[in-house]
Amino acid sequence: MADLAERLRSALAAASLPSSDYDLNPDTQLSPERTLRGAAVLIPVVDRPANASVILTKRSSALKHHPGQIAFPGGKVDETDDGVVDAALREAREEIGLHRRHADVLGALPPHETVTGFLVTPVLAMVTPEFMARPDPGEVAEAFEVPLDHVTNPARFLIESRRWRGERRFYFVVPWGPYYIWGATARILRALADRMPNAET
Question: How far apart are CA 103 and CA 196, in angstroms?
């Protein structure tokens, strides 16, 4: 775990610009007066004996926003949260039952702007291998793990597009088995992949 933690800390220390859902759409005109709401997600990395992995969730189909999509545990920063790290850990506890004693926070990636008006801070944490996710059925349909090597290999990422609000929008995807990982989740993983030491290209 120590070696993996050191690799991840090196990734966090690498210089880079903040990411956004608009990175592959440079012609998009953004208002300088736009207001962004603070949010945080947790990137929970588990150092399994066979292969390190990242815990992701499939959002409940009953949710109003982004039903059924693949996401990190996370959400809006509440007034009662003591910053973005506290918010990410609180949301992970609520969504997948991750107690803080099982999470060693290593740091955070630069914030990510979403098309839905959030400024999301991705918080990276090492999770103890004995942790077993317990999804909250009201928010999470499923919690699963994807190999860290898969989602930190830039060669695994594809660029796809669809029409959104009358315009064609391009975005990253990094499929894994039956899971279609795309949008902000894929973009944040790509930002981590680009920072990882010895990243494959």
Answer: 20
Closest CA to 22 of 149, 122, 195, 172: 172
pLDDT digits (tens, 9 = 90+) for 12-56: 999 888 999 999 998 888 888 899 999 999 999 999 888 899 999
CB 184 within 8 A of CB 112: yes
The pLDDT tens digits of the residues spanning 181-197 come to: 999 999 999 999 999 97
Could you give the CA distance from residue 117 to residue 147 in angstroms, rounded to a whole number? 30
Q: What is the pTM of this model?
A: 0.92
Measure the CA–CA gap between 19 and 130, rounded to whole angstroms: 32
Placement of tokens 């949301």 in the chain:
91
Q: Do 56 and 184 contact (CB within 8 A), yes or no? A: no
Q: If DSSP codes are grouped into helix, strand and coil, which group holds residue 66?
A: coil
Largest distance between two CA atoms of the chain: 48
How far apart (Å, rounded) are the C-alpha atoms in residues 185 and 165? 20
d(CA 107, CA 42): 10
| Rounded Cα distance, 59 and 82, in Å | 25
